[in-house]
TrEMBL record:
Catalytic activities: (6S)-5-formyl-5,6,7,8-tetrahydrofolate + ATP = (6R)-5,10-methenyltetrahydrofolate + ADP + phosphate
Keyword vocabulary terms for this entry: ATP-binding, Ligase, Magnesium, Metal-binding, Nucleotide-binding
Top-level lineage group: Bacteria
Principal EC category: ligase
Protein family: Belongs to the 5-formyltetrahydrofolate cyclo-ligase family.
Alphabetical list of PANTHER family matching this protein: 5-FORMYLTETRAHYDROFOLATE CYCLO-LIGASE, ATPASE INHIBITOR/5-FORMYLTETRAHYDROFOLATE CYCLO-LIGASE
A Pfam family reported for this protein in Swiss-Prot or TrEMBL: 5-FTHF_cyc-lig
Cofactor entry: Mg(2+)
Keyword Ligase found: yes
Name listed for the protein in its UniProt record: 5-formyltetrahydrofolate cyclo-ligase
Entry keyword annotation includes Metal-binding: yes
Annotated source species: Pelagivirga sediminicola
The enzyme's E.C. designation: 6.3.3.2
Amino acid sequence: MSDLAQIKAAARKAAFARRKAAHEACRGAAAGRLSEVLAGYRGAPLAGYMPIRTEIDPLPAMQEAAANGPVCVPVIVGEGQALKFSRWWPGGAMKDGPFGARIPQLDDFITPEILIVPLVAFDRAGGRLGYGGGFYDRTLEGLRKAGGALAIGFAYGAQEAAELPLEPTDQPLDMIVTEADVIEFGRA
C-alpha cells in the first residue's frame, strides 16, 4: 500500500467515526437545508442516493424534488466505470444493488444535471473523500466534460476535515450542504 493510500485509509477511518457519532446524534432530521437548496433547481434532473450505514439521509429532499422533476439514483455497472443513474420515485419498486445500496427494480437511465453526492469527509475547499472506488470522480469528470453537472456534497458538519489527502483525479464539489450550513465554492 502506498503512503497516500495509507494516509487516505487513516483519514477515512477517522471520518467514519465522526460520521457515526453525528448520525447517532441527529437521527434523521438533517435534510431541511438540502431541500432549501434544491428548491432553486426545481425541474432539473437530480441524482440523489439511497443512504447506507451512517450516511446522512437525502430521501426527504429527494421526495420533494420528485414532485417537480426527474430524480434518479446511482447504479454501479462495473469496477472502474462511471456510474449510471436510474429513475427513482417515492414508493417505486427497488432491489438490492452493490455495496448494500438499493436501486430501482427496472433500469430507466437518465443523465442528471445536479448530483447529491455522499461522502466520508469534506474540506472547506470543496475536497471530498469518498469510499475509495472512484465512482463519483469518474462520473463527475465525464459529466463535466459533456457540458456540466452541479455536485452537491451532503454530509454532517462533523465530517469536515481541516485537510484531506487528495489526488489529481479527485473531483471537487461545487457546494457542501450540512445539517447547519451551505458552503458554496463558486465553481458552478
